[in-house]
């Protein structure tokens, strides 16, 4: 009897499951315009573009699918978004750190307008509100004979403080010049880190001084930090940095004496790679050759 009750219960549950509405049995289908994301670090600043990639599909794009002189969401599906972790200069104009929707206004004969919008409820461009523009820049498009079938964003030619964000579709490339103050940001971080360093921490002022020396910025800070690091611990690294700073300032005599001290420390330090000491020996040879 109990077995029959369980059997009837199981059959009832099966009927209930089959009777569920189709909406409960969800699945995902591919979008005609697939999603994409590109990222780039410029110096220490993270940037990204999230967008969807419509295809040409044999259509007339400019002046056809996308009208001249009308706002375009610069992609498909949801608005294309540009994110920067720090303030950035776009075509020479400041854009504060944050996330923005990119809206483009194509022009048949003139430069295009690229808008970075703060609008949170932007739906394609049907409700685009130019009053919420954070920045507008003018960019001259480049024409090519090669067709780019699907919309493409790329970060090209990155340097320590600049990159070009290219938008390519059909036979048009739209280049945006982006720059960041990498040295300014790093210098501020270095100053804060040195100020917060513990009394027995030689590595933090050494790293700060070494960066400033190699970047060619804040020479007074670099000298002060190098002296502070050497005061905490005189070793291969700190003596060598003081030697390089002395040589850069034109004090070759002091530079030679400090580099000899650095090399002596290095030869006694079994944790160093052989090439590190050899590099300092090469510098010393160059400096003494110049004295002769």
What's the short story on this structure?
37% of the residues lie in helices and 27% in strands.
Quickly list its features.
Serine Threonine Protein Phosphatase 5, Tetratricopeptide repeat, 292 residues, 2 domains, six-stranded antiparallel beta sheet, four-stranded antiparallel beta sheet, 10 strands, alpha+beta, 7 helices
Average pLDDT score: 92
Structural domain tally: 2
What is the multimeric organization of the chains shown? single chain
Shape, per Cα inertia axes: elongated
The secondary-structure class comes to alpha+beta
Q: How many angstroms does the end-to-end distance come to? A: 111 Å
Strand order of the largest sheet: 1-2-3-6-7-8
**Model regions low in confidence, pLDDT < 50 over at least 5 residues:** 14-18
Topology, number of strands: 10
Computed over alpha carbons, the radius of gyration is 30 Å
> What letter string, H or E per element, gives the SSE order?
HEEEEEEEEEEHHHHHH
Tally of DSSP helical segments: 7
Q: Could you describe the largest sheet, including whether it forms a barrel? A: 6 strands, antiparallel
């Amino acid at each position: 009897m109990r077995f029959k009750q369980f059997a009837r219960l199981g059959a009832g549950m099966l009927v209930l499951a089959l009777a569920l509405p189709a909406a409960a049995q969800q699945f995902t289908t591919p979008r005609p315009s697939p999603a994409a994301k590109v990222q780039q670090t410029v110096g220490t600043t993270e940037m990204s573009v999230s967008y969807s990639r419509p295809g040409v599909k044999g259509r007339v794009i400019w002046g056809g699918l996308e009208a001249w002189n009308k706002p375009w969401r610069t992609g498909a599906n949801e608005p294309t978004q540009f994110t920067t972790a720090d303030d950035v200069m776009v075509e020479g104009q400041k854009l504060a750190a944050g996330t923005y929707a990119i809206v483009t206004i194509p022009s048949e004969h003139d430069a295009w307008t690229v808008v970075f919008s703060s609008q949170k409820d932007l739906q394609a461009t049907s409700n685009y509100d130019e009053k919420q523009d954070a920045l507008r820049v003018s960019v001259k498009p480049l024409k090519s004979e090669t067709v780019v079938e699907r919309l493409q964003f790329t970060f090209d030619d990155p340097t320590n403080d600049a990159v070009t964000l290219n938008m390519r579709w059909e036979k048009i490339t739209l280049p945006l010049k982006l720059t960041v103050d990498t040295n300014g940001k790093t210098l501020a971080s270095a100053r804060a880190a040195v100020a917060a360093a513990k009394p027995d921490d030689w590595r933090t002022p050494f790293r700060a001084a070494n960066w400033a020396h190699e970047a060619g910025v804040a020479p007074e800070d670099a000298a002060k930090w190098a002296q502070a690091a050497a005061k905490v611990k005189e070793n291969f690294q700190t003596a060598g940095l003081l030697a390089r700073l002395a040589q850069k300032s034109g004090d070759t005599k002091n530079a030679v004496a400090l580099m000899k001290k650095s090399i002596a420390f290095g030869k006694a330090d079994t944790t160093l790679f052989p090439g590190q000491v050899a590099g300092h020996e090469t510098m010393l040879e160059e400096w003494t050759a110049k004295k002769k």
